[in-house]
Amino acid sequence: MHTSRRSIAIDMDGVLADTAAQFREWYFRESGIRLGPNAFDGLPEDECLPDGAVRRYLYQPNFFRTTPLVPGAQEAIAELMEQFDVYIVSAAMEFPNSLAEKLDWLREHFPFISWHNIIFCGTKAIINTDYMVDDHVKNLDRFPGKTFLFTAPHNLKVRHHQRVSSWEEAIRALKTELAFSYRGNSL
Questions:
Q1: When you count CB atoms within 10 A of the terminal residue's CB, does the N or C end of the chain come out lower?
Q2: pTM
Q3: CA dist 167 to 8, 29, 90, 145, Å?
Q4: Which are the catalytic amino acids?
Q5: Contact status, residue 45 vs residue 54, Cβ threshold 8 Å
Q6: At what angle do helices 73-80 and 167-182 cross, to 10 degrees?
């Protein structure tokens, strides 16, 4: 019987934290214009709001700290931790406020994740887990393991990674992979 646990790298922004909802909310507070949930569909993330608003918000205090949870994320991570070594991985170095804010956000929403399993980096090219769940193709394309593209407005046209559109789908896909690898058919 296979005894070593498989490992998963899970992105924060767009996967655990609903950054698209946060962009819409901050834009509403600034402009008074309420955008619908599909307003960003198919647009590159940095172009989904006018006048560089996306980049501006990313540098503002409390943007990362107050981002809402993606539905089902807490329960899914807790469930995955029963069978996998789960690492939260975020390319957080570009935005100065994000390090402390993301750590505080994780402590609030995922207090069951050890600090040993939180990785803040500049590039995810160094990550070498068995699986990666991310919403950005640039991270998945260079990853040596099995990839899962978490659906986000900016990646709707991407076709070259296995897509999961919710945490329910992600759990099913990862458990299927786990069962497959334990039968001796590892990746």
A1: N
A2: 0.92
A3: 14, 29, 18, 19
A4: 11, 13
A5: yes
A6: 10
